[in-house]
């Protein structure tokens, strides 16, 4: 009898995590590795946030909290969503979880029955389809194209909907492409959703504060308040506040869904770490100017990487509007041979050879459901990015 349950056969290890861990292990062995694989800010968590956590420990806030989070944090998250997106949630419509990942996991497990369909525009974050499959659902992958900036169109959405559709998952700015939907683009999608009252929307807004060139990110309920009753707005502190390791994500949704999320969380992890919640409270309650400082650094790095990679013959590197990724086409280089004789049959061969031969770790597009590309995270220092781009250029120029 196999050890693993049948459901484990439906999922793969997270490729973003696997490649990042491989890069970390190679580095520990003494190899000269530049890791551009992790979707993780290189900035340290701001001091005032760390201090809030230390004070929470000193006050003895080391016990269970309500499963859905402390009343203070739920209230502060509601206020943050109001200030940032003009959303109007009450504290009881907020659930605090262990990262955005748990919010998505809870939502899918709590709502999907076998065969229920979840529309996922591709490219998409590696974990969406696997979480849906763990929850017995069926991911319906809708490939977008570079012509629409990797954004789902109303026609594509309409064509993907069936009587079994339960959710649409949207992510703007998007991991891995950095594409951000304009208000009008989102409105075109919400108009389609208004025609289908059985469909819920999960909007993953984790990168919403990281947009460039003065652009703003929008979220579903802000654009179409009539969808409030069937939207789960997901966000968290990981990316915007450089707090990945603290593991705090939030769900904002109608109470009927929040109750289900709390019920499930109460039978799995219970509350998110009390100390991390105190830190998140400080983060979301503070004046938010410090985020703008990080955003301007990210924008400069984006410009650096896009300029450097666009100069490399064979690579196509669009300029993203947000997040901290560029999603680069390697289609022109497939079939070529590396300096050490490896033939690059696909994007996975490309990133494997890139790591083996240059020490630069990146994630292949297939992991994000879009073959022929690779994702570079530019949430790392300018010096390392410059060196990584030089190595990528040399590697590509050496292909024959
Ligand atoms: N979301 C980040 C990434 O895409 C972190 C790793 C993960 O959980 O996938 O790299």
From TrEMBL:
Keywords: Aminotransferase, Pyridoxal phosphate, Transferase
Signal peptide: none
Top-level taxon: Bacteria
Keyword Glycoprotein: no
Residue ranges of every copy of the Aminotransferase class I/classII large domain listed in the record: 32-392
GO molecular function per UniProt: transaminase activity
Gene3D superfamilies documented for this protein: Aspartate Aminotransferase, domain 1 (3.90.1150.10), Type I PLP-dependent aspartate aminotransferase-like (Major domain) (3.40.640.10)
Catalytic activity: L-aspartate + 2-oxoglutarate = oxaloacetate + L-glutamate
EC number: 2.6.1.-
SUPFAM superfamilies, A to Z: PLP-dependent transferases
Any Pfam family the entry gives: Aminotran_1_2
Homology family: Belongs to the class-I pyridoxal-phosphate-dependent aminotransferase family.
Full protein name: Aminotransferase
Species whose genome carries this gene: Bombella pollinis
């Amino acid at each position: 009898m196999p050890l693993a349950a049948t459901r484990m056969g439906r999922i793969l290890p997270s490729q973003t995590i696997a490649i990042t861990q491989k890069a970390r292990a190679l580095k520990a062995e003494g190899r000269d590795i530049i890791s551009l694989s992790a979707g993780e800010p290189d900035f340290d968590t701001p001091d005032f946030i760390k201090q809030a956590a230390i004070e929470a420990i000193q006050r003895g806030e080391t016990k269970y909290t309500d499963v859905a989070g402390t009343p203070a944090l739920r209230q502060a998250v509601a206020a943050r969503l109001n200030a940032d997106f003009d959303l109007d949630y009450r504290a009881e419509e907020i659930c605090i979880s262990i990262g955005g990942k748990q919010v998505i996991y809870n939502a899918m497990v709590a709502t999907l029955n076998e065969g229920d369909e979840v529309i996922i525009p591709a490219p998409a974050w590696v974990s969406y389809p696997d979480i849906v499959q763990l929850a017995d659902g069926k991911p319906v992958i809708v490939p977008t194209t570079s012509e629409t900036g990797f954004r789902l169109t109303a026609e594509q959405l309409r064509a993907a909907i069936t009587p079994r559709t339960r959710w649409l998952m949207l992510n703007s700015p998007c991991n891995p492409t950095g594409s951000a939907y304009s208000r009008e683009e989102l409105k075109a999608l919400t108009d389609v959703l208004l025609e289908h009252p059985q469909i819920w929307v999960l909007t993953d807004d984790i990168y919403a504060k990281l947009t460039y060139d003065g652009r703003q990110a929008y979220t579903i309920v802000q654009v179409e308040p009539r969808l409030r009753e069937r939207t789960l707005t997901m966000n968290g502190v990981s990316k915007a506040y450089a707090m990945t390791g603290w593991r705090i994500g939030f769900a904002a949704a109608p109470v009927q869904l929040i109750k289900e999320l709390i019920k499930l969380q109460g039978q799995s992890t219970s509350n998110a770490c009390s100390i991390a919640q105190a830190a998140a409270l400080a983060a979301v309650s503070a004046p938010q100017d410090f985020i703008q400082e990080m955003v301007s650094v990210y924008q400069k790095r984006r410009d650096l990487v896009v300029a450097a990679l666009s100069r490399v013959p064979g690579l196509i590197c669009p300029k993203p509007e947000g997040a901290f990724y560029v999603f680069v086409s390697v289609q022109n280089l497939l079939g070529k041979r590396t300096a050490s004789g490896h033939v690059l049959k696909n994007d996975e061969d490309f990133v494997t050879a890139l790591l083996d031969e240059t020490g630069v770790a990146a994630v292949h597009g297939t992991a994000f459901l879009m073959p022929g590309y690779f994702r570079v995270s530019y949430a790392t220092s300018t010096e390392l990015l410059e060196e990584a781009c030089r190595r990528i250029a040399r590697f590509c120029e050496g292909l024959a």
